[in-house]
Amino acid sequence: MARVDELTEAAQRLAGERDEVRAETSALQQHVAVLEDDLTASMMSLRRMIREGNLPLQ
């Protein structure tokens, strides 16, 4: 019976770790989506500036 308890505890621990990793993955995917949106907006802005000849002087 001790082995069953040990395996049950291990299964519960692993399920908890799995859930934590899933939550972290979801948060990271959301962050990536925000960064991709920011990158797209920056690229569009740069293209517009190049087209209009409005690049700031260095």
Strand fraction equals under 5%
H and E order: H
Structural class: mainly alpha
Largest sheet: none
Rounded Rg: 24 Å
> How many helix segments?
1
Sequence stretches where pLDDT stays below 50 over 5 or more residues? none
Q: What number is the mean pLDDT? A: 93
Distance between the termini: 75 Å
Q: Number of DSSP strands?
A: 0
Q: Report the principal-axis shape.
A: rod-shaped
Helix content: over 70%
Structure, briefly:
It contains one helix and no strands. With 58 residues, the protein is mostly helical.
Structure description:
The chain is mainly α and 58 residues long. Helix content is 88%, strand content 0%. The longest helix has 51 residues, at 2-52. It is rod-shaped.
